[in-house]
C-alpha cells in the first residue's frame, strides 16, 4: 500500500516541480550575519493566543518536519534536542537553515519556525504524507507546497498551534506547539529515511572533531567521550537549547550533494540554492568517535537514503539523534 501510494504521488509531484518557472522575490537580506528573509504569509498569533482550535488537516500518525531558523539572532533554539533527525541545508547568502524531523516524541515547543524552500519538497517525499510546519514561503512557491504530498501547516492554518515569544525580536520568535498541530507522536516506524542502526562496521579512523563550512556558516562536531555523543557548535558557538541542554547527536552524516542555483532569488538578487537529495554520492559518517567513508544512494524521491560502506555493506548508525549536513560535492 505504501509503495503504491508513493508511485501515485511521484508522478504528480514530479510534474509540479518541473512546472516552477521564473525568479521569485522575497524579503531576504544579506550581510551582517543575522539575516532575515521575512517570508511568512502572516506575522502569526501573539504570545497571549492560547486557543486550541484545529482545522483537522494535519496528518495524525505522520512525521512532523519543522523548518527552524538558524541565524545568530534565532539562537538558542527550542526543542532541537528532541528531534530524531536534523537536516542542515544552505540557503541564500551562504547561510544555513535546519529542518528538524520528529517521530519518536514531541517536545512541548519547537522554534523559532521559519520559511520553507523548494528543496524541502524533494527531501520530504521519503516520508508518507508528512506534516510540514513553516512560517511561509515565497509566494510563487506556495501553490507548489499546497499541492505537494504533504500536510502544509503555516501559522494561519491552525489556531493556537503557533505563538510569538517575547525573548527575541520578530521574525525570530515564532514558536510551535506540536501537540496542538498533530496530536501525539507517530513513533519511530514513521521514519522512512532508509537509515540503518546497529553495530559499527569495522574500520574507520579516529575522529575528535569535524567542521563543515558553508559560504557564510559553519558546523563543528566534537566527540565527547563522557557523553558518547558529538557536541554541536554552530558558527563557533556551542549549540544549546533555551533550557540549557547541549545538542549532541549520536551520529553525524556529512552528505556530499549537488547544490545548484534554483529559479528563485531574494530581493537583493541572491539565488536560492537547491539541494539535490535524489541521486548518489559520497559521505562521511561520524559515530563512536570515528569517521567512516560511505556512499549514499536515493534512486527516487519516494525512496529513503541508503548509506553503505565502501565495501557495499549497510552503514549502521548509532542509536540516537542523527544530524545530516548537506555539503557541496
TrEMBL record:
Region of interest (Disordered), residue spans: 32-59
Matches recorded under PROSITE patterns: PROKAR_LIPOPROTEIN (PS51257)
Superkingdom as given in the UniProt entry: Bacteria
Secretion signal span: 1-30
Keyword list, A-Z: Signal
Pfam families in alphabetical order: DUF3048 (PF11258), DUF3048_C (PF17479)
Stored InterPro entries: DUF3048_C, DUF3048_N, YerB-like_sf
SUPFAM superfamilies, per database record: YerB-like
Keyword Signal: yes
Annotated ranges, domain DUF3048: 58-185, 211-324
Protein name stated in the entry: DUF3048 domain-containing protein
Amino acid at each position: 500500500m505504501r509503495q503504491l501510494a508513493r508511485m501515485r504521488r511521484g508522478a504528480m509531484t514530479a510534474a509540479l516541480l518541473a512546472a516552477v518557472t521564473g525568479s521569485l522575490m522575497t524579503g531576504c537580506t544579506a550581510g551582517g550575519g543575522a539575516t532575515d528573509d521575512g517570508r511568512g504569509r502572516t506575522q502569526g498569533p501573539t504570545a497571549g493566543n492560547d486557543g486550541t482550535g484545529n482545522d483537522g488537516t494535519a496528518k495524525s500518525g505522520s512525521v512532523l518536519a519543522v523548518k527552524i531558523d538558524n541565524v545568530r539572532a534565532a539562537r538558542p533554539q527550542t526543542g532541537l534536542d528532541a528531534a530524531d533527525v536534523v537536516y542542515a541545508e544552505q540557503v541564500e547568502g551562504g547561510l544555513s537553515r535546519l529542518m528538524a524531523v520528529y517521530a519518536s516524541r514531541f517536545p512541548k515547543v519547537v522554534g523559532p519556525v521559519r520559511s520553507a524552500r523548494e528543496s524541502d519538497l524533494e527531501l520530504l517525499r521519503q516520508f508518507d504524507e508528512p506534516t510540514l510546519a513553516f512560517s511561509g514561503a515565497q509566494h510563487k512557491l506556495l501553490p507548489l507546497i499546497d499541492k505537494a504530498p504533504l500536510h502544509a501547516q503555516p501559522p494561519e492554518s491552525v489556531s493556537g498551534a503557533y505563538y510569538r515569544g517575547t525573548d527575541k525580536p520578530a521574525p525570530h520568535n515564532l514558536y510551535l506547539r506540536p501537540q496542538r498541530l498533530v496530536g501525539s507522536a507517530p513513533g519511530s516506524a514513521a521514519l522512512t529515511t532508509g537509515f540503518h542502526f546497529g553495530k559499527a562496521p569495522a574500520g574507520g579512523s579516529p575522529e575528535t572533531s569535524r567542521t563543515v563550512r558553508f559560504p557564510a556558516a559553519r558546523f563543528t562536531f566534537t566527540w565527547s567521550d563522557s557523553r558518547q555523543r558529538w557536541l554541536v557548535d554552530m558558527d563557533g558557538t556551542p549549540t544549546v537549547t533555551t533550557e540549557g541542554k547541549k545538542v549532541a547527536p549520536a551520529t553525524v552524516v556529512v552528505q556530499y550533494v549537488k547544490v545548484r542555483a534554483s529559479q528563485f532569488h531574494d530581493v537583493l538578487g541572491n539565488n536560492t540554492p537547491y539541494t539535490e537529495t535524489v541521486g548518489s554520492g559520497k559521505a562521511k559518517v561520524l559515530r563512536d568517535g570515528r569517521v567512516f567513508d560511505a556512499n549514499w544512494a536515493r534512486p527516487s524521491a519516494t525512496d529513503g537514503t541508503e548509506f553503505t560502506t565502501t565495501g557495499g555493506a549497510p552503514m549502521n548508525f548509532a542509536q540516537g539523534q542523527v544530524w545530516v549536513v548537506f555539503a557541496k560535492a
